[in-house]
Amino acid sequence: MNGTNVSRTVLERLAGELPELTPEARKAATYVLENPRDVGVSTVREIAQAAKVKPNTVVRMARQVGFEGYEDFRAPFREAIRRGAADFPDRARWLQDIRKSGDLGGLYADMVRDVLDNIEETFAGISTEDLKAAAEAIWAARRVFTLGVGVNNSVARNFTYLASTGMTEFHAIPRPGSTPVDDLAWADGQDVLIAITCKPYRSEVVEAVRIAHEQGMTIVALSDSPASPIIRLTNHGFVVSVDTPQFFPSSVSIIALLETLLSFVIAVASDEIPERVATFHARRHELGLYHAEDK
Hints:
One of its GO terms (biological process) is carbohydrate derivative metabolic process. Keywords: DNA-binding, Transcription, Transcription regulation. This protein has three domains: about 5-80, Arc Repressor Mutant, subunit A; about 90-125; about 130-285, 3-Layer(aba) Sandwich (Rossmann fold), CATH 3.40.50.10490. Helix content is about 55%, strand content about 10%. It is built from 14 helices and five strands. Strands 2-1-3-4-5 form a five-stranded parallel beta sheet, with helices on both faces. The termini are far apart.
């Protein structure tokens, strides 16, 4: 969510209280965590209706995290909007022009808008300190396992491939013919698990994160909600925006965040890493793996 640090603090506090809430209050809290921009422009009745709970449940939820009532709770979100959550005017005009361009113009505009919004919303909620802490944990690890299934399997493998140009102990899981749980059987507190899953959450990823937590591994989680079951068990949790008009969640912000995280790992790593990357690519040139331009 584009907004102030205050609204972000409220969301973090709400996520921390989630296990302690009643089932109905948890429904309201989950809706707020997944739709924070709605809070600043919605009444208590509108939020309650959207979350499928009673208005007094929303009020109790607000009080649970230290506010006198819903209006007090809503104030930081209204301030976030006031401070500039709106789109850039030039981009808005550009999207309007696309929408008028033909039969598929509306779809084109919706896809482009969501891609840009997803990137903005994802990085608006993440600080350099958050990324640096995760990067330092990754660099200090004995081994790093990157877990993604379904569409996120290729995302995890792409991250691992990029990391392998300078570092050796990065492993994409599940390995062919294996399961995530088996691949983590001998991992411990010296290792890091980077786990990725978005709604509907994949059970094998949730189970692997639970086991990694029990084994003392450091966990870096990427998911689409502060209420995600893998975010709740993580050491370094990153909420990504994956909205799209299509039936599948968007991978754009996940890929962008992983690329940024890898750049932070390289930044905090020892001086040998740039030399390794240079050696890796020099060897590829020597082996003729890159196309030579016609002379």
